[in-house]
């Protein structure tokens, strides 16, 4: 601080004289500015020298100033000085290369390199590193080849940059050639940075075994070495090996940094060891960085623990750690999974406050949030002004339309995407096929499915085949659905057999339904869904002995039936209901209002559909059972608490039954309420007695 103050006083003194000083004085002051990294005083001194028409005897003073400007990314000052220099040497040109590399100015970096009258190894190293760091690894490797061609020997820095380019491009062949050159030239030695670059290159190219061989052979290992190998196992789909190596690192007495910890947290979440991830996170000494916080948020969200993800985000803010776009998008995605509109809107405000609302990741997450909360207009308000959209943004909006029953808009938006020259991916076609499925557009669905491979070079996955099986089967073309399963290039998995079973259940095809159910019983004997669906099929045909057999099989295998429930979020609190719920503190008022509503709707023509009760019981018992489904209780509670102008949002964990669907339609018409119901398959928007699904779900 004292040195900077003294420097400022010296420059104040020389500027106040307003006359030329000796060159030695200028040299000394410039060097002091460089040592203090004081750009402000350097600019003042530079301006004084120009005003006095000072011309140094060589390039030394100007080069020192250029170096300082480049280091501080002061592009305007550096350009002005460089353009006015009476003579330039290789140091001058290299300083400008360093400036453009630091500022991410790829065009000027490349142009300056190409017009340089002379170069040295530093010129090549700067350009290779600059191109690689700024996302142009292919050009970086081209310059590396040019360097060798012109007879300049690569340095350690050259090799590190070139190997990083190979890593970014997954260019194993060239990476191996560089490795060979390093071995032949004896460059490898004990330099940990070179060993780490090689380990990372092999890992990024999918050669995890070679990466581990190098890791074991490395004469010196630092934290970066361990991080590279732990990350390699994680990215290679071997999280258990990541955890094993992480534990080995700790046993060896090396202290993990937050990058190590973040990778270990990811590995624990991928192996569903959530408690161990939580313990590791809590054991972090000192202040946690935003990467660790974000890793926990994403891990909890992907593990179905969205509430925990939001709690961690709250703790992050209390810890005074500023979230970035990755963090905000992860938390918004957690809200989207829960369809938590109130908290999602709060996060939207937070994104605006910290200036990341226009970020591509955040915008795409917001579109997904509003679509999953059934508010398509708000999703469109985010989508339309986006300055740039990638395939994720388009997919979120197309999928949102499809999920909310606006199928023609989904298909129209897909055509707009195609016109924008952006290449669709497999997720795009899942959304498009889903639209065709919900709208029962058989020919269009077949056309889009065929275009995946034929027009876009995308190989359909089992998810796409599942959509087509649903589309064909639900449209009465079960024979074609069966043919498609036979023609698939994959072995049918549980998704395919579940799709067939679902279609058979809708169409009452017990023969093929039994085949699908048996396949599912073999694949996962403890999954309750197939047993329940087959039992319901038998019940629908009054085959009560077969129903009893299925239930006996479930009992003998200890298969647990999952509970159906619905929930609503009111005043930032979640209210959960099960069928015939007796746990809610306001149950008496809820049932009283429900009875009144049922009577009112019956007077208007509503007749409970007891045919959906698949139990061998009397009509009165069926009526009692169907009247108290969880979504009806959630609806009535929302009617009690929300003003008439506020839409009602209900979420259900399984497919809504036909009677409740009918009940929602009558209620929306009778009370003039807008009701949004999200079940396990789609969103239902009930307005004026009609549903967005057109009774096809």
From TrEMBL:
This is DYW domain-containing protein. NCBIfam families: PPR. It comes from Trapa incisa. GO terms for molecular function: RNA binding; zinc ion binding. Keywords: Repeat. Pfam families: DYW_deaminase, E_motif, PPR, PPR_1, PPR_2. Belongs to the PPR family. PCMP-H subfamily. One of its GO terms (biological process) is RNA modification. Transmembrane segments: none annotated. Coiled coil: none annotated. The keyword Cell membrane does not apply. Residues 605-697 form the DYW domain. PPR repeats lie at residues 22-56, 58-92, 120-154, 222-256, 289-323, 390-424, 461-491.
């Amino acid at each position: 601080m004292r040195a900077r103050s003294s420097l400022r006083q010296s420059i104040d003194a020389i500027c106040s004289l307003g006359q030329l000083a000796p060159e030695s004085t200028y040299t000394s002051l410039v060097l002091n500015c460089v040592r203090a990294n004081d750009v402000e005083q350097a600019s003042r001194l530079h301006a004084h020298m120009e005003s006095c028409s000072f011309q140094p005897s060589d390039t030394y003073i100007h080069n020192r100033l250029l170096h300082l400007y480049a280091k501080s990314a002061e592009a305007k000052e550096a350009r002005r000085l460089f353009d006015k220099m009476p003579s330039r040497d290789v140091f001058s040109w290299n300083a400008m290369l360093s400036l453009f590399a630091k500022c991410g100015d790829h065009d000027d970096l490349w142009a300056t390199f190409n017009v340089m009258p002379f170069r040295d190894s530093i010129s090549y190293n700067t350009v290779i590193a600059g191109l690689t760091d700024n996302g142009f690894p292919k050009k970086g490797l081209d310059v590396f080849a040019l360097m060798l061609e012109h007879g300049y020997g690569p340095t350690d820095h050259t090799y590190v940059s070139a190997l990083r380019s190979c890593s970014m491009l997954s260019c194993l062949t060239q990476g191996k050639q560089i490795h060979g050159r390093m071995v032949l030239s004896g460059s490898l030695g004990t330099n940990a940075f070179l060993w780490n670059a090689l380990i990372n290159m092999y890992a990024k190219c999918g050669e995890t075994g070679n990466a581990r061989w190098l890791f074991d052979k490395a004469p010196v290992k630092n934290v970066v070495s361990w991080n590279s190998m732990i990350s390699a196992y994680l990215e290679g789909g071997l999280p258990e090996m990541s955890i094993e190596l992480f534990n080995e690192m700790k046993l060896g007495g090396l202290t993990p940094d937050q990058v190590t910890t973040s990778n270990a947290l990811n590995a624990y979440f991928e192996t569903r060891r959530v408690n161990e991830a939580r313990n590791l996170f809590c054991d972090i000494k000192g202040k946690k960085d935003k990467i660790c916080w974000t890793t926990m948020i994403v891990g909890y969200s992907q593990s179905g623990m969205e509430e925990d993800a939001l709690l961690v985000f709250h703790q992050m803010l209390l810890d005074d750690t500023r979230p970035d776009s990755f963090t905000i998008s992860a938390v918004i995605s957690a809200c989207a999974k829960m369809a938590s509109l109130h908290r999602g809107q709060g996060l939207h405000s937070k994104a605006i406050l910290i200036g990341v609302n226009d970020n591509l990741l955040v915008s795409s997450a917001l579109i997904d949030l509003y679509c999953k909360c059934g508010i398509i207009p708000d999703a469109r308000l985010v989508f339309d002004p986006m300055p740039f959209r990638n395939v994720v943004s388009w997919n979120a909006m197309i999928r949102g339309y499809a999920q909310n029953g606006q199928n023609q808009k989904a298909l129209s938006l897909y055509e707009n995407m195609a016109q924008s020259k952006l290449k669709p991916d497999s997720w795009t076609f899942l959304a498009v096929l889903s639209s065709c499925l919900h709208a029962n557009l058989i020919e269009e669905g077949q056309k889009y499915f065929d275009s995946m491979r034929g027009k876009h070079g995308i190989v359909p996955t089992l998810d796409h085949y599942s959509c087509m099986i649903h589309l064909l089967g639900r449209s009465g073309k079960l024979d074609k659905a069966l043919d498609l399963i036979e023609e698939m290039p994959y072995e049918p998995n549980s998704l395919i057999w579940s799709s067939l079973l679902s279609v058979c259940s809708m169409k009452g095809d017990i023969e093929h339904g039994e085949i699908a159910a048996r396949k599912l019983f073999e694949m996962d004997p403890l999954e309750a869904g197939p047993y329940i669906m087959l039992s319901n099929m038998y019940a629908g045909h009054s085959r009560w002995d077969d129903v009893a057999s299925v239930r006996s099989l479930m009992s003998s295998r200890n298969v647990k039936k999952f509970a159906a429930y619905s929930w609503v979020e009111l005043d930032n609190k979640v209210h959960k209901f099960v069928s015939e719920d007796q746990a809610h503190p306001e149950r008496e008022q809820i049932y009283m209002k429900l009875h009144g509503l049922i009577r009112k709707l019956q007077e208007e023509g509503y007749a409970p559909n007891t045919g959906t009760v698949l139990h061998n019981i009397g009509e009165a018992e069926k009526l009692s059972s169907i009247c108290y489904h969880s979504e009806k209780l959630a609806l009535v509670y929302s009617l009690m608490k929300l003003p008439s102008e506020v839409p009602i949002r209900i979420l259900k964990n399984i497919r809504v039954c036909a009677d409740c669907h009918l009940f929602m339609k009558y209620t929306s018409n009778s009370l003039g309420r807008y009701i949004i119901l999200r079940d396990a398959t789609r969103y239902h928007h009930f307005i004026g007695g009609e549903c967005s699904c057109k009774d096809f779900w």
